[in-house]
Amino acid sequence: MTLSDLLPYLAALLPVRPQSLPPTLLLFPFLLILEGLYLIFSTVAAVRQGWRLRRRRAAPVRGLCSCRVPRDAVAGQGSGLPPLPPLPLVSCIITCYSEGNGVARTLKSLLEQSYAGSMEILAVIDGAVQNFATWSTALDMAGELVVARRPLRELRVIPKWIRGGRASTLNTGLALARGQIVLALDGDTSFDTDMVAGVVRYFHEPGVVAVAGTLRVRNEGLNLLTRLQALDYVIYRQLVRTGLGELNILNNIPGAHGAFRRDVLVAAGGWDNGSAEDVDMSLRLRKCLGRHPGWRMRAAPDVIGHTDVPARWGELLRQRLRWEGDPFYLFLRKHGRSLRPRSMGWRNWLYAMWYGLGFQMLMPVALLLSLGFLLAAPAAAAYGAFAFGYCIYFAVAALVLAVHLAVTSERPGQDVRLAVLLPLYPVFIVVLRAWSGVAVLHSAIMRSHRDSSMAPWWVLRKSRY
Prior knowledge:
Strand content: 5-15%
Distance between the termini: 53 Å
Shape: globular
Number of strands: 8
Number of helices: 16
Strand order of the largest sheet: 3-2-1-4-7-6-8-5
Largest sheet: 8 strands, mixed
Helix content: 40-55%
Order of helices and strands: HHEHEHEHEEHEHEHHEHHHHHHH
Mean pLDDT: 86
């Protein structure tokens, strides 16, 4: 039996028939169906890596480090990259700004890593004069490390007296880093003890130049909003990102939890000043994939970091206004003329056009328009259109979560509790997507990338874009 044979039976379960809806109202369910297809596409791609992870977890771990080099994998093979030693020096650059005592949790989670090789932890304090509490806490942690005499661990606290923003902080750390692998991490994010070992294992695969770690919600149990974000992180920042990494079309190495080969970062000139420095760096690396077909950017669903998410709607909307508005600035203003199939490769270029322009810009604006149609339509027709789209998206989200629990989740017992939120998830997604449309329009009209908390105004205003 094919999918087309099942469609009549699925349609019979819906509270409304699509053919009974006015054409303008069909735009709303059509957009949700498109997003559902994107979820299914990414989930299918993620299954292959998920099964490999399952077998890896079931295999016994030998020695002190779980990042053993596969016998058939040489890190530089076919990619023009020099090979890495089995236990390379790892540099962790921590961007610190206004974390206060909370930075101790991040530094402690890195000092307690199970990685058997050497690690240097560079805590770069941006605007150390204004952030004396963060600087003082980091210095205390460095003093405790000296007393404890932890082998193969070094913590350096680097104050930046004048605030320059995230890109400036990362470039300061990169200039001082000595490791072959560089991790860019946030000062308010903690990590599992096997995180660094897991990252190094991915870099021993052929041609890997960057690895996207997985972020989980640390304050999940605070309220309903944080739990809904936890479900969203599991689906989009773990499962979907895994599928994109498997296809080598990864759209972002997150700034809070990303890893790179140092020689590639230096060749790229480091991070660029401005908003969304993580997406910008990822896009610049993707523009090299056409010239270096052996390079790969991987997603690591088993390399886990934990971060706090906004607990109030106002905080969440302000955060997403910046996140969802940045693609307009990057894809159209900054990199629009340089996105070419020859530099990116056809597969990455097609995905960048579809996702960056279609999914992140056109679709949210179209969703805003469709919601306007719903508000102007008679109540019965509006309910029918919403119910039709809701049922389709709910079914897809339930299927995707089930696949995640079976294949990619490293904490299935914890993630299964999120299933009770599935009835609310389609409504949550509609709200976020509609707000993304507002963010795109805000970025296009107000140039919001020049007014970001990621860097001071005198840095952002120097951008020519």
